[in-house]
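Protocol step 4 of 6: structure prediction from sequence.
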Amino acid sequence: MAEATPQTEQPELKRAIGPKLLLFFVVGDILGTGIYALTGNVAGKIGGALWLPFLLAFVVAFLTAFSYLELVGKYPRAAGAALYTNKAFKIHFLTFMVAFAVMCSGITSASSAALAFGRTYLRQLLIEFFDVAIRPESLVITGIAIIFISALAIINFRGVSESVKANVVLTCIELSGLVIIILIGAYAIAVGDGEPSRLTQVDVPDGSTVMLAITSATALAFFAMVGFEDSVNMAEECRDPVRIFPRAMLWGMGIAATIYVLVAITSSLLIPADELAKAGSSALLRVVTVGAPGFPLWVFALIGLLAVINSALINMLMASRLLYGMANERIIPRFFGTVHPFRRTPWISIVFTTGVAVILVSTADIGKLGGTTSLLLLIVFTIVNVACLVLRREKSEHKHFRAPTWAPVLGAITCAYLAMPVLSGRPWDDYKIAGWLLLAGVVLWVINRVLTGKHEIHPENLGK
């Protein structure tokens, strides 16, 4: 563009995040809806060896994290995947689709959190305090999920000042719920409860194979490990990001993965896989009931409620801001960038992303939304891993983290493998939902091309 964008006239962001706060941010961004809502769904795909897909999902995410660390060290600016894609391939349409896929992943993730809010944790609180039981699939629960999404839109519209210190508090709350599950498991082992033989049990559906069952469960469990990539958007607010990012991200992912594996082991020890699968998004509530009958269930339900609220709010904020950023860069119609004159928030983008989320919670279940989120991000991660290798031809003037070559290579292969329709055993519904969302992106791209002609993308401005 010839004229300066509004972003170039703004002062630099305050560099207030040190290594400890960044570590909490990474851990807090990973913990949330995935483990609180999808443990039962993953158990339904693999059986008692529930810990295995979470461990494999961590390995795949860990490989991709090396690429993100090299790229954020080389280009310590916000925008993440869109920035790296644009620099590596310089294909405007591909850059747009990557940014749009990231935005869609935020909407599907928030939608799964909305369903967990209504069908699981709020429902349990209504039972505990008012002895009111509502069927999880009832229209009332769907209505509650829609109201929840609408409430997030109102908060988003009014303007939310996110702080890293608030993230520390919410992370501690989310973490406390998972620590409760792990302590219940430790107690069960100490008193001789639980069935260790379940930990090696892999249930293979008719017509399937052990490998397909494992990859199918891993593809869904991957949803629980996403979030670490959001931290690269904090690069401009970190003190010395080139130095502190590698340790914070890798330690944060390791902590989250360890917690997830211990939660999965506890769940399998105490409850058979078919019962976990039947419990669905209520699986962890079931673990608390069986493992610690005297523990007040409303406490865990409240913790779970706060965990999914935090996940949903962060994702809806990200999605609306990214759509607004794309409109500002003129890569989708400009009216999506309309800012409310009084609230100073991108209200058209908020309305659009909220509308998409309402449609999703009305037509899909938690498993499909979680699977769609992981599918979209696996596609993005495949591109980021390839971009890391391509951008090694571009020399940097400063020292930065360099990933071992095998990491982005294996990262690209494993992410592509888990995204493949036949190899991963992923249900076709995931591809249908993702396909419709990305088709909407293509339509917006075409409309904008017709209205404005060619344009230049500045991904570093996306989401600001």
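Step 5 (inspection) to follow. Confidence is low (pLDDT under 50) at residues 1-13.
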